[in-house]
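Re: [ENG-882] Designed sequences occasionally contain unexpected residues at chain ends

Forwarding the minimal case from QA. Structure tokens:
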């Protein structure tokens, strides 16, 4: 794996942690420049705006929703306009959940807890959207004539070079790539 690919993987893996750790810090612009110095990246001012615009995740199901929020901010900034979307990051609303089960009402609460499922304070088990649904969620909220659109790509095999090509295309237009990677979907580990 080359130096570029290591840096790309690192930035994909750490953006969420950076959001939580740095968003409240007054020296955020300096910290992001230090943290990602030398990385081939979306411009740091775009990352800063996207990270500051989206609150830290407080739900067990909202990682995709938060990443969509980052994508919206980057898209609007790349188009040089203000993001007008009001997204509720605590309530699913129109966000396409893959699972939304009120375990307490259905008397499944103890079974789900024994399986290690995390339920909210109302006994609800939620799991976020399937990757293709994230594309629809993003595109349905962008203006119809907007210059940027989300594209879902799915493949049974993906070489590192193919992933890096997609990331580089995103960087070129100042857009993040939301990567959902499952090494072996049929494996239990």
């Amino acid at each position: 794996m080359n130096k570029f690919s290591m840096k790309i993987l690192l930035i994909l893996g750490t953006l969420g942690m950076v959001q939580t750790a740095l968003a409240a810090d007054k020296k955020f612009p300096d910290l992001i420049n230090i943290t990602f110095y030398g990385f081939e990246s979306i411009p740091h001012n775009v990352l800063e705006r996207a990270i500051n615009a989206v609150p830290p995740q407080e739900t067990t199901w909202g990682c995709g929703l938060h990443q969509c929020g980052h994508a919206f901010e980057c898209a609007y900034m790349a188009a040089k306009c203000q993001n007008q979307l009001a997204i509720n990051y605590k309530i699913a609303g129109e966000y396409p959940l893959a699972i939304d089960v009120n375990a307490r009402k259905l008397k499944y609460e103890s079974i789900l807890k024994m399986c290690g499922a995390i339920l909210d304070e109302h006994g609800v088990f939620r799991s976020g959207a399937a990757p293709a649904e994230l594309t629809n969620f993003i595109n349905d909220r962008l203006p119809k004539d907007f210059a940027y659109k989300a594209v879902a790509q799915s493949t049974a095999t993906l070489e590192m070079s193919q992933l890096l090509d997609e990331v580089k295309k995103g960087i070129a237009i100042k857009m993040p790539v939301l990567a959902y990677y499952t090494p072996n979907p049929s494996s239990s580990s």
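QA comment: On inspection the terminal residues look reasonable. The chain has a mean pLDDT of 78. Proposing we downgrade this to a documentation issue.
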